[in-house]
Design goal:
alpha/beta, TIM Barrel, 13 helices, 9 strands, 15% strand, globular
């Protein structure tokens, strides 16, 4: 086992983990057997409750659905679906990961892979996992008016039909742009529709400001997040099945005190040091009793020089076991490189 604090670079190979033969079979199913998607969703064994211990670790995979593919200096770092799916599967099957959130195409890819794997080995990758559908991605990045983030993906009705657990949505609030109100109103309606279907809503309020070069940058101050939390918690005809998704910031305890709704922390833009996110999540989990986990994406699945499984396991240890940083890093080292032969039947 590695000594705590010793960093070892790990090159994760999507090709070595997720066979191209299995990836190609996804399209074959889409062409010849599209009915497999709904059938697999309906046969999935769901948890008796959303959380098993009151906490959640959810992988977010919805960035490409908004034309966001850049990763650091690589403008297409998240644009390769084979690599994207391989990394997501690596995280989903890690100890401590509760589930996954994505757009219609991605979640259907996942269900197809599950059907193919189950047919060959009998093992399901999604039984007892939390499945959440992304609902609005219409505010395509870089397009004028993107702040009016239309609901263009899952509907509450389809999420219910597919035996999912809930839906995720977000809105960007620019006080200088009246179009912000459109997405807020749409989110309120979606929360109501999910509530009426007995599904959970995961809501991400995000205050932003327009950049001189175009696009938006997130405003992450305690004052802004406190106000965002209070406003988002009030949306919809009931908040009884609503989780808030909020950025971690120093003094996060003040943000947690703004609401009684459960909070999931997000990872934000990709970081050079993948383990820095462990520091944030560890501090955030101590900020209040209603901080209940994370919904994190590229900072885990595309971690630089690290195995997505190892980093996901470290996050899981912090959230579910209340581990400190050193034990979580030991967990990361222990899981690094494990089960790379998960899809051996397809090699």
């Amino acid at each position: 086992m590695e000594t705590v604090g010793t960093e070892r670079k790990f090159h994760f190979s999507p090709e070595a983990y997720f066979p191209r033969k299995l990836f190609a079979a996804i399209t074959e199913v889409r062409v010849d057997r599209p009915e497999v998607i709904l059938a697999e969703a309906l046969r999935r064994r769901r948890r008796p409750r959303l959380t098993l211990d009151g906490r959640l670790v959810i992988l977010a995979t919805d960035h490409p659905g908004r034309r966001v593919t850049e990763l650091g200096a690589d403008p297409l770092g998240m644009g390769d679906r084979h690599g994207y799916l391989a990394r997501a599967l690596r995280v989903l099957t890690a100890p401590g990961c509760d589930g996954i959130m994505g757009t219609t195409d991605f979640m259907e890819d996942l269900l197809i892979v599950n059907a193919l794997v189950r047919e060959s080995s009998g093992d399901s990758l999604v039984d007892d996992k939390v499945l959440i559908g992304c609902m609005n991605r219409g505010g395509h990045a870089g397009v004028e008016g993107e702040i009016d983030d239309r609901f263009t993906s899952f509907t509450a009705r389809q999420l219910k039909r597919m035996n999912f657990d809930g839906g995720k949505m977000m809105y960007r609030l620019d006080p200088a742009d009246a179009r912000s109100i459109n997405a807020i109103s749409d989110c309120a309606q979606a929360i109501t529709e999910l509530y009426r279907e007995d599904l959970y809503a995961f809501v991400e309020p995000m205050s932003v400001q327009k950049k001189m070069t175009g696009g938006y940058e997130t405003v992450k101050t305690v004052e802004t997040l406190v106000r965002d939390a209070g406003a988002a918690a009030a949306l919809g005809e009931s908040s009884s099945r609503t989780f808030l998704k909020l950025s971690y910031v120093p003094e996060f305890e003040r943000v947690a005190q703004a609401t009684t709704l459960p909070i999931l922390m997000l990872g934000g833009p990709a970081r050079e040091d993948p383990t820095s996110i462990l520091n944030d999540f560890s501090a955030g989990m101590k900020a209040g009793a209603n901080v209940r986990g994370v919904m994190v994406g590229r900072n885990v699945s595309f971690a630089s020089n690290e195995d997505p499984r190892g980093l996901a396991a470290a996050v899981g240890a912090i959230i579910h076991e209340k581990s400190d940083l050193d034990p979580s890093r030991r967990r990361m080292a222990a899981e690094r490189g494990q089960q790379m032969d998960l899809f051996r039947a397809w090699r």
